[in-house]
């Protein structure tokens, strides 16, 4: 109950902030940070809970973005419908990828998910309806009241999506699904021997994770007013979605949230103060530091300090 009360307070605070006179750049940067919160939380459902490392985040993110563009181009659909379409296409892609690859394990599964990124990118490059390789310029519709700008509206929308994603991840962690996924992560053979429906649970994790990633990608074309395959299917999304749970901690739903806020906020600060090309260096340095000094992430580090005390 306390969790949902806190979520409601955050949602109200986001609306209040969007209605305030805060600097416009804050909303542009906060949108990116919240997008990584959703991506990291979604990644952790399969990669953290079940131990299946997914390098295909960009494929699900890009599929959601292009699904939104197709719906907008064809029907002029509102942003809510675009997000629903992105989530549906991401979930369907997750189901397809899961059915084809979840019998693979370890590095073989990871390589298969990378291949999905290149397959989806190639398809979009050759689809002229969505601009092909050159991309497509988009005309934003009128901003909805009571928001003054599109960036403020997208900030509130992504806040609600982040709350929903974290709520889903929290439910999965504490439910029978989470217990089964943890059993798979510890020993899939032992889990199967004890009657755990491993394939069913992995498919659920794939579908939920893919759906959330697709939903996260849907607002991005309207955020940029432009879409093209190279940036939409960039592996930077996959690296960020993987790095954030590693930094925050993969064993708890709160870990990806902390990691995404720390990582994405640092990247935004570096982009403004130094250069956008330094983002990858920031990710690399943080990953090396946490792998060496705190392999269980920030949450694991806090637990160790608390235990020692």
Concise account of the structure shown:
The chain is an all-alpha fold. The chain has 15 helices and 2 strands. Helix content is 76%, strand content 1%.
Give a written overview of the molecule:
The chain has 15 helices and two strands. With 309 residues, it is an all-alpha fold. The chain has a two-stranded antiparallel sheet with strand order 1-2. Helix 2 packs across helix 12 (235-248) and helix 7 crosses helix 9 (198-217). It is globular, with a radius of gyration of 19 Å. The protein starts with a helix and ends with a helix. The model has no long low-confidence stretch (mean pLDDT 88).
| Percent of residues in β-strands | under 5%
The string of secondary-structure elements, in order, is HHHHHEHHHHHEHHHHH
Order of strands in the sheet with the most strands? Answer: 1-2
Number of helices: 15
Output the structural class. mainly alpha
Rg, Cα atoms, Å: 19 Å
How far is the first residue's CA from the last residue's CA? 30 Å
**Approximately how much helix is present in the residues?**
over 70%
Q: Major beta sheet, specifics?
A: 2 strands, antiparallel
Low-confidence stretches: none
pLDDT averaged over residues:
88
> Could you tell me the number of beta strands?
2
Shape, per Cα inertia axes:
globular
For the structure shown, list the relevant keywords.
two-stranded antiparallel ribbon; 76% helix; 1% strand; 309 residues
SSE layout and pairings?
Layout: H1 2-18, H2 24-47, H3 57-75, H4 79-101, H5 107-125, E1 136-137, H6 150-174, H7 176-186, H8 188-193, H9 198-217, H10 220-224, E2 226-227, H11 229-232, H12 235-248, H13 254-273, H14 279-293, H15 297-308
Antiparallel strand pairs: 1-2
